[in-house]
Amino acid sequence: MKIKSILLGLLSISFFAVSCSNDDNEGETIVPLQGKYNLSKTGTIVNGQEVLVDAPQNESGCSRDYLELKLSNVAVIGDYDGDNCALTETTGTYVRSHNDLTITIGNASSVSDIMNLTNKELKIKDKTTGIITVYTR
Questions:
Q1: What pTM was computed for the model?
Q2: By CB count within 10 A, which of 38, 40, 122, 126 is most buried?
Q3: What are the residue boundaries of the Lipocalin-like domain, all occurrences included (predicted)?
């Protein structure tokens, strides 16, 4: 009976060790990227500090502009503009490769680092301009 208890203990430890192994995800988050995100803040890094402000693209009195990433790799950018808050939707595609997000609209592409992805926030930093954009769900 003592041997069975020892074997059971070793078996439990081996399952725990396997479940804690590194999955080689290179820092990738397991939160799904797909969803609709409202534009919240924009900014950049100044003297090593992140400086974010409320997104000036959001028209006062209108719903917030948004980015929708669909399961079919379609990206939809929603822009509310003008006195009547007219919605303009622009459709393109997106691709995620590890922590890079590439959004292509027409012939223009932008590649961003995914800085943070949670159930409530998507924070990206454009690799060319360094502009940080924060979206919330």
A1: 0.77
A2: 122
A3: 33-124
